[in-house]
Amino acid sequence: MESLEQIKARAEAAIPGAKIDIVPNLGPANQPSLLIDNEHAPAIAKFLRDDPTLRLDFCSNVTGVDWLDRVTKKTVKVKKVVEGEEKEVNEPIEERIPGYLEAVYHLFSMAHKHGPITIRMRTRDRGEGARLPSLTPVWRSAEFQEREIFDLYGIRFDGHPDLRRILMWDEFEDHPMRKDYVQPDDFEWEPTPHDDVLARAKQHYAPRPAEQELRPS
Amino acid sequence: MGEGQIDEALRTELQRQGVWVTSMQELYNWGRKNSIWPLQFGLACCAIEMIATAASRYDIARFGGEIFRPSPRQADLMIVAGTVTKKMAPQIVRLYNQMADPKYVISMGACAISGGPFKQGYNVLKGIDRYIPVDVYIPGCPPRPEALLHAFMELQRKIDEQKLTGADKAAHLDPEEPSEFPVPAFGKHDLEPPANPDVFQPPELKRV
Asked: From the list B122, B123, B126, which residue is nearest A188 (CB)?
């Protein structure tokens, strides 16, 4: 199969105005993916599906990712005048990356027996701008999984034929897979609370009065 | 000697003379406990064990429970076999309400008892006993068919001990006892109410 760079170059040539970035994956899987721009996403998806050498006709999996606001630290070489001398100094800088939601599609080719190719789309933000174009018109198998992302992450897919909640009930208002989801306080007694459960236990029960703490039991 | 009971020595003596004596209560309970019709539904992997229990190898028919009814109107026993999600909980309570008295509930497996491995999750009910009364609990993930048979025998023992008259008579004979329970509603963040306080009280933290 072609490399991602080749796919990117051919897709950008075939669709005027399309912009594709390659997102590296530095983990042991080393599976880089294509970040496609939302405006041209349906056209790029059609290209990936219909191109005779790619024929990525099977979308096996669609999932969501929640990225909160984060700060990354980098060191940059800056020229500075130190003690009357111009030197190159390493200076740490902080970069703020605003949060966004991501939809990830895993594509295979049944015709050519190759894959996977991973494509991603990112929303503008995690609030009102959490919208993406639906790829269900291109791959029918994405229908339920896009509904699941809508249910659990709250991404609205424009052009989806039937965008409703699929796992939770219709009256439900939260998006439980988001990292800032707060569960209803339904904690019940646990014999050995630890980690997250211990944190919830402390939150649930009122703090112990000070004198009770000191009294020998 | 209590009401509805016969002296064992007298009964044996009479039996030797060819007279068989019983009481209305014994006859009634004997009939009911040996013909328990379970409601035919399953929720998760526990249902597979329930199916195995009903099939030839374990054969729940030996205990009179082989007639799984697809209608709550004809069922005596609800085997809550599997994970009760919050989305499914109102339907379970509604099915229980539609069953005719006397009715019994077996809570099968860790999920139906307490939420099991999903207890700390957002979408699983922390035990069906929050909304309906449960007669027998079977732990396991999933419990083996032998465990379900044991629960079934336990339930038969319980039915056998039920009284027809008196202050401690069975709940289904007491018009004051409720046989239907409120169905929880789908709320914005959770089921409303999260538990029925008349049926269930969460265990309290005791500090020493």
From this structure: B126
The reply to whether B126 touches chain A by the CB within 8 Å rule is yes
**Closest to B142 in 3D by CA, of B116, B104, B105:** B116
Residue in chain A nearest B121 by alpha carbon:
A183
d(CA A169, CA A183): 16
Contact A169 B186 (CB under 8 A): yes
Set of chain A residues whose Cβ sits within 8 Å of the Cβ of B120: 196-197, 200
**Could B126 and A176 be called an inter-chain contact, meaning their C-beta atoms sit closer than 8 Å?**
no
Which token pair is B119? 């207890």
Looking at residue A91, its pLDDT comes to 82
Residue A151 in domain: yes
CATH of the domain at A129: 3.30.460.80
Kindly determine whether residue A212 and residue B123, on different chains, have CB atoms separated by under 8 Å.
Answer: no
CB of B146 within 8 Å of any CB in chain A?
no
**How do residues A89-139 score in pLDDT, each as one tens digit?**
888 888 888 999 999 999 999 999 998 999 999 999 888 889 999 999 999
Write out pLDDT tens, residues B33-74: 999 999 999 999 999 999 999 999 999 999 999 899 999 999
Distance from CA of A188 to the nearest CA of B (A): 7
ipTM higher than threshold 0.95: no
DSSP category for residue B39: B
Q: Taking a C-beta distance cutoff of 8 angstroms, is the pair A155, A123 a contact?
A: yes
Question: pTM to 2 decimals?
Answer: 0.84
Please tell me the total count of domains within chain A: 1
The domain of A26 spans: 4-67+99-192
Separation CA A51–CA A55 (nearest Å): 5
- Out of A184, A188, A205, closest to residue B189 by CB: A184
- Bridge-based pairing of strands A20-23 and A156-158 is unpaired
